[in-house]
Batch of 2 targets.
Target 1
Amino acid sequence: MTARDEILSKVRQALGNRHAAHSAGLPEDIAPAPPLAPLGEQQRDTLVEQFAAALLRVGGGFSVAASAQEVGEQIAGIAAQAKSRKAVGWHSPWFEQLGLTSRMAEMGVEFITDRERPDKAAFINDAAEAGFGITAVDYALADSGTLCLLAAENQPRTASLLPPVHVAILRPEQILRGLDDLFALLPADDRLSSAVTLITGPSRTADIELTLVVGVHGPQQLHVILADWS
Amino acid sequence: MHLKSENFTANAEAAVADLALQKRLRVLDTFTVRRAAAFAELPEGEALRDRARAIKQQTINHLDRYLVELERNVERLGGHVHWARTGDEACAIILDIARRNRVRTVVKSKSMATEEIHLNTALGREGIEAIETDLGEYIVQLADEPPSHILAPAIHKSKGDIAALFAEKLRATNLHEAEEIAAVARRTLRERFRAAEMGVTGANFAVAETGTIVLLENEGNIRLSTSLPRLHVAVVGIEKLIPRFADLSVFLKILARSATGQTMSSYVSFITGTRREGEVDGADEFHLVLLDNGRTRILADEAKRESLYCLRCGACLNVCPVYQKIGGHAYGTVYSGPIGSIITPPLVGLEQTKDLPFASTLCGACREVCPVRINIPHVLLSLRGDWSEGKGERPPRGPWLERMAIKAWAWAMKHPRVYNWSFRLPAKLQGPLLKDGKFERLPLAFGNWTRNRDFPAIAPKPFRALWREMNK
């Protein structure tokens, strides 16, 4: 008997060889959670405030940009602080619209996405050398200050992981109430991203005497820019 | 320094006498305080725990069906599923993958399952270097010690110990602050992540519906282990399954809160298959190793089956009055604390672990904090029952007089009148034997009862009398 068959037969034996039909349906007590109440328009502002407060609590930075111009200025500030001429990030048409790409070129910062470096090793090399990484997030969760990033073409995983600073640009309509909203949106089928990452604050550890240290393997700084000029 | 559970009593005595360890263990309260605060701000917390337990119960009771569903969905996405009856079999599977891919360096994230199968030793024997990348695990690996806590593997070490260790093993001198130590680990391990051909992780959950592996962490080392190397191998106990993707919402709300008191861990990764067409990073090959290694034995025993609901949060360790005094190493097992005492005996055999079911005061603090409400005291009693019924080996026998006294006591318990009268005379006569109102040493064959603690005096007024007065 193969290991697979042996383990499965031991499991069935342990459970008393139930009839196959017995294990067909899910019992009522863990039926799916009830549908969520729709999000009211006036709830939006509260969500932004709630998200910002939760993000600050976990050691993230938060700022609002009231124009594309301001987004560029804030990124220029971060680049100056990081003292870096290299950044990696997502390839987003939205970044083009904001004029981010040209703005960084003006600052003398080389901005590299997977368009420029379609090879894994090459991209990782650049990401490891970059002073900061810029992503547009897919969703954010207000109650925990969490960002949700979906891996995809143009959305590399390591842009938010290898550089010491992660800058995420967020739009207000991407903010959800919490996990229940998120799981109502993420598809549980073939459309599910190969890697969904939830990020709540910078990288941290408490492995030495339970003393909090920020920035171990991942970014030491997480900064969220809310692009809000609707 | 690898302690054995056969020597539990001696290990525990040594741990209690180790003042430096006692000082380290005191910080565990931090976890407990934070956990309480995190649940206080979650009004639906209790209902979520019930729901989490119901989901786990459902999964375990239909485990065959969910295992097959998980296998199908992992394979549908091009992943490889391997089944391992034992730890050795799991190691052989991983070694085979490593050999076929000419792997020389493996980066590992914290995983109790790989501790359980002693993967690092197996890889090391074949000349493959396995590097622990979680800071705490990295520290204990450098020190050649086992982890002493599910969440904080190096909790038994002081900052000074760690600085000395880094000076000796990494030639990094003059480290004083935790930040400096962490920075050295970051620099050293970065190079290893980039060189490694294989990343090995465990899993907090495996979702049957989507074939997704879910991993929680704070440092980022798991994300690196799954994003950089070409191969990703996840070693997962067969009990880690959950049925549906959306069930994660329930577990993610309670797991980090139970473990560290965080609302969410810094990073949660849902890995579904390998990197796809057009994606620049992520693993190219994914292997899931499903591990039995005694779990079907726990499954077969209905009194102990609920031990398989465990999420490995570590909350029961932090509140356990025994763990708080002896730490993780004294147990001499991979899984320590209350949860370790209930899952280890069925996994490795009661002969070597006979002391573990007794290493508890049955106070119930563990059950109270368990996110899935595992009735740990109940399972401990069931294991004690197995022991006294001789399922382990020959049951331990106390002195004749003690056995007779217990028989007499059991008989008296069933006869309230006798019970009521039998303590009246001793209550009056005990005076000269007491010190500060307690028995410091019991006479005759009962001496063992007071070897490590005092025995309470018989109350001057019995409870029954107090009860009558209160209800007047």
Target 2
Amino acid sequence: MTIGLEEYLVLGAIVFGIGLYIALSKRNAIGVLMGVEIMLNSVNLTLVAFSRFSDSSVALSTQVFVIFIVAVAAAEVAVGLALALVVYRNRRTISVDEIDLLRW
Amino acid sequence: MSDVGFHLAFWSLAVITVGSALMIVVSRNLIHAVVYLILSFVGVAGLYLTLSAEFIAMVQILVYVGAIAVLMLFAIMLTPRAARDNSETLMRYPALILMGLIIAAGTFVALETDWGAMRGEAIGEQTRIIGESLINEFVLPFEIAAVLLTAALVGAIALAREDDEDLALHAESLAEDGLLPPDADSPSPSPAPTPGGGDS
């Protein structure tokens, strides 16, 4: 059995599923951000696998795309953690099921 | 692609990545969860190396392990009275079902699709090609990403900055909980300041 594209894609799907579970189920807002980061990582893994195994002549453009995803993820986590700090300062909690000010 | 070392590397890195992601789910302490998150990032970086994407692997180590994980540790340390127990909400059962569906669908698509011709050998000199395409055909997205990062950092600083009355309130409430000495931030009436005080 050789390791080809399919193995990496299945691995990416598994890691994405775990990240989705973490993002949906964690009570702490920082835990939710961890799940989002895991999901972004699995998507990057899938993209790099396509870039490695694709027969196209512009396959490395996929890796440029991955670099942009990493940059946007870094911006997202910086703003997300700053928001968590502001919420903590105002509400004394960052538990996502207690931050229900906008609940109808 | 079929030698023993490659197989060993792929399977051990896959076990590290998936296993530490699962440990984030089950570990009861948020700090431990961040450590497992770092291990998962390192595992993904190793998988990039098995895909001969050495530049992406280095970016992964520098940005994710070096910046994002440390930022998360800082955020946990700066929220001292929030829950540290990494518990789960009632959304866990719908989330579990959704996770199963996503994994099943992804596996099905990955295995059932005919992906066409595969490249046998990796492209050489990847870093040079990526760097050249970043300043040629992708120069506009590159500049937009630079503006986005600047805006995000300014926004994060503007959000997280405390003005003086915030800071006084914060120190006061921390002192109520015994997390700070009570006179740590209040100006002392005596002309000689107490040693070690007033610098929080």
